[in-house]
Write a structure and sequence with these properties.
The complex is a heterotrimer.
Chain A: E1 4-7, H1 8-18, E2 23-26, H2 34-45, E3 49-52, H3 56-68, E4 73-77, H4 79-95, E5 99-105, H5 121-125, E6 136-138, H6 143-160, E7 163-169, H7 170-174, E8 176-179, E9 207-208, H8 215-235, E10 239-242, E11 249-252, H9 255-270, E12 275-280, E13 282-284, H10 288-294, E14 300-305, H11 311-319, E15 325-329, H12 338-352
Parallel strand pairs in A: 2-3, 2-4, 4-5, 5-7, 6-7, 11-12, 11-14, 14-15
Antiparallel strand pairs in A: 1-8, 6-13, 10-12
Helix pairs in contact in A: 1-2, 1-6, 3-4, 9-12
Chain B: E1 2-5, H1 24-37, E2 44-48, H2 56-59, E3 63-66, H3 72-82, E4 87-93, H4 94-100, H5 102-110, E5 116-121, H6 151-154, H7 160-164, E6 170-177, H8 181-199, E7 204-210, H9 214-217, H10 221-235, E8 239-242
Parallel strand pairs in B: 2-3, 2-4, 4-5, 5-7, 6-7
Antiparallel strand pairs in B: 6-8
Helix pairs in contact in B: 1-8, 4-5
Chain C: E1 2-6, H1 16-20, E2 26-28, E3 40-42, H2 53-57, E4 63-67
Antiparallel strand pairs in C: 1-4, 2-3
The chains are: A alpha/beta, B alpha/beta, C alpha+beta.
Chain lengths: 354, 247, 73
């Protein structure tokens, strides 16, 4: 099939519909607007529902209702709106419902700005809302990956009864790239015997709930969730390795930053420097296994982010003090420049911080 | 001998946690009776709020959700859009619906969302210890208005039914009370009517039910139901505020 | 001929039923139930016509009412 040009935000919409998602609830915010615009047209064509809510708080609670009723459902926002959704995401995690949440990140804190950034990494991977929970989190780096990952996102949500986030930035949302859509497949959605959609002859009622008023019961539920998160951490680490086989310096970057870091790796290799890249594809669970593979030859790590240093904390946890971990990044919609990052690499490799 | 009064099937035969004389139990029963009589238990889906009625999901014997504080109308919206033939309702208190959940209730009504809202107004936050509610009456003493609610610092109570009835999306809005048997019968009729309208495809329907809170009002249950009549009804008049034109 | 039965163990002693009986037939027992409340009871079953007003007022579904030749409802 021929490739077509698509914007990242539109690709999310098309990818979701092809993954069997028929329900979208959301509130307008930049820079993810093309996604609701796309789905407002596309979902009715597919006999689905597009609903513009009164707030992000409402949107995520509509998702809670729809997911509990058994639907493949998603919402989308950017930093400030994702903050408003945290209450609902916590409920969805507690009630163990599948859904997909898109965060097209922008500059922060506060109203920040609408320029692309990676400012919400910590919020995305450390739970984000109240209580002890985790959200599975994809970090695509191209429009093609967005299309491909939407299917994976819905499938993982179903597999683990857990919210899944697609964490991207305004650049990925706005840019156009050629993508291969492939044939539209019929999607098999797993049985929803647990859904609260009316008993209809079912013997016992279904309850969608995150309340465990008895401490003993809450503890059991927390243990159950923790076991699930451990299973996800064991089974679902995904990353891309780029020229790391003999790398003395390993860059670590996700999303748009990884595209910049890749260019830095190539330039370094051209100059004979042994530099590679680990690109987490899922940022939660964090791909700690990738680090074990490179630790024998890697002398140091440099994370490259579009923020003031967030993922670097997870890299340090993965490296566990065995090697120095450095950071370079730019926040607020300013992009790390490949030549600047390359200068940093050269400086570090010339003995600066061994 | 035949039974003339017994528990409705869709209300589970378990003790309810409410305080002695709290009229939540009556309202639960009326909802369950309506669901039974309309024979829709198989497609009934309820959303419990945060507040005293948070455990409502345990009491009704059909599919239930527990929703976050104030968001039940949004949760119900999500459910109804996925299950259009469901008989979907929320059960919400005054703090839930008229304070933290104001945006959700207004917009569910404005959209004409085909859900039924059972709005229990007892003029106080009960679960958290008797604080002032958006519906607390002028002069009413609560734990956060120890000298009585006064306009200068606390503003005025909200009449939600009157407000919501102005919206085009609202199909049926009424206020009833359960302070005596005659009004309980009227409340039952109104709740059943709201569900009937939802089943018939009408838009947003809401029944506000004036309810008592003996514990946090500092009254005996008998005094409390009298206070509903003497103090609440004058501020919150009973009646149908929005009825469909064809009815 | 009517019969009113009380599920004593569910009664919270709120007395709302005693206030609404048109014949003033209900009263609170002297003894207490497992929850520590004085449960409601009927003082004269013979006088009861099975109107079920008490049952409709009870918040805890303590009261069941039966009547000769009447349908449920």
């Amino acid at each position: 099939m021929a490739k077509i040009l698509m914007k990242g935000n539109e690709a999310i919409g098309e990818g979701a519909v092809r993954a069997g998602c028929r329900y979208f609830f959301g509130y307008p915010i930049t820079p993810q607007s093309e996604l609701p615009h796309y789905l407002a047209k596309r979902l009715p064509e597919a006999d689905g529902v597009y609903l513009q809510s009164e707030s992000e708080t409402s949107a995520i609670n509509m998702v809670y209702g729809a997911a509990g009723a058994g639907a493949r459902v998603m919402t989308s926002s950017s930093g400030p709106g994702i903050s408003l959704m945290q209450e609902g995401i916590s409920y969805i995690a507690g009630a163990e419902l599948p859904c997909v949440i898109v965060n097209m990140m922008r500059g922060g804190p506060g109203l920040g700005n609408i320029a692309p950034a990676q400012s919400d990494y910590l919020q995305a991977v450390k739970g984000g809302g109240h209580g002890d929970y985790r959200v599975i989190c994809f970090a695509p780096a191209s429009v093609q990956e967005i299309i491909d990952f939407m299917k994976d996102a819905f499938e993982l949500a179903d597999k683990y009864f857990n919210p899944v986030m697609l964490l991207a930035d305004g650049i990925l949302g706005q840019m156009m790239e050629p993508v291969e859509l492939g044939e539209e497949e019929t999607v098999q959605i797993p049985d929803r015997a647990w859904a609260a959609n009316g008993m209809r002859g079912r013997e016992k009622k279904n309850i969608i709930n995150s309340l465990y008023i008895v401490p003993e019961d809450m503890e059991v539920h927390n243990h159950k969730l923790t076991k699930k998160y451990a299973e996800i951490t064991e089974n679902e680490q995904r990353w891309e390795e780029y020229r790391v086989e003999d790398a003395e310096m390993v860059l670590v970057a996700f999303g748009t930053s990884a595209r910049i870091a890749k260019a830095v790796v190539d330039r370094a290799r051209d100059e004979g420097l042994r530099v590679g890249l680990i690109r987490p594809i899922l940022v939660w669970p964090f791909p700690v296994k990738a680090f074990e593979k490179v630790i024998p030859h890697a002398e140091q790590f440099l994370t490259v982010e579009m923020n003031m240093g967030q993922m670097v904390e997870d890299v340090r946890l993965a490296v566990a003090g065995r090697r120095p971990v450095h950071f370079t990044g730019r926040p607020g919609g300013m992009l790390p420049v490949a030549s600047d990052v390359f200068q940093e690499v050269k400086k570090l490799m010339s003995g600066g911080a061994k | 001998m035949e039974k003339v009064f017994t528990r409705p099937n869709s209300l589970k035969d378990i003790p309810m946690h409410y305080c002695p004389g709290c009229t939540h139990g009556i309202i639960h029963r009326l909802v369950a009776e309506a669901i039974d009589e309309l024979d829709v238990v198989d497609r009934a889906i309820g959303v419990a709020p945060v507040g005293c009625s948070v455990f409502t999901y345990q009491y009704f014997d059909f599919d239930m959700y527990q929703g976050s504080h104030g968001r039940a109308p949004a949760v119900a919206t999500g459910i109804k859009r996925v299950v259009p033939d469901g008989v979907v309702f929320t059960y919400q208190g005054d703090g839930d619906l008229a304070a933290i959940g104001t945006a959700e209730i207004v917009h569910a009504a404005a959209r004409g969302e085909k859900i039924t809202v059972i709005f229990v107004n007892n003029a106080i936050y009960a679960m958290t210890g008797g604080q002032m509610a958006p519906t607390t009456l002028m002069g009413q003493k609560t734990t956060t208005t120890p000298f009585g609610r006064e306009a200068n610092s606390n503003g005025f109570p909200i009449r939600m039914s009157e407000m919501l009835s102005t919206l085009d999306g609202a199909s049926y809005v009424s206020r009833v009370s359960v302070h005596d048997p005659k009004n309980i019968n009227k409340a039952k009729k109104s709740i059943k009517k709201a569900f009937e309208m939802q089943i018939a495809g009408a838009g947003f329907t809401m029944v506000e039910v004036l309810s008592s809170c003996p514990t946090n009002w500092g009254m005996s249950p008998k005094e409390a139901v009298k206070w509903v009549e003497s103090d609440m009804i004058p501020y919150y008049p009973l009646g149908e505020f929005k009825v469909p034109s064809e009815v | 001929m009517a019969r009113v039965t009380f599920r004593e163990e569910r009664c919270k002693g709120c007395e709302l039923c005693t206030a609404v009986c048109p014949k003033d037939l209900l009263a609170m027992s002297k003894h207490i139930n497992a929850m520590g409340f004085h449960p409601a009871t009927i003082t004269d079953m013979e006088q009861c016509n099975g109107c079920a007003t008490c049952a409709r007022m009870c918040p805890d579904l303590v009261i069941e009412v039966e009547k000769e030749g009447k349908k449920v409802g």
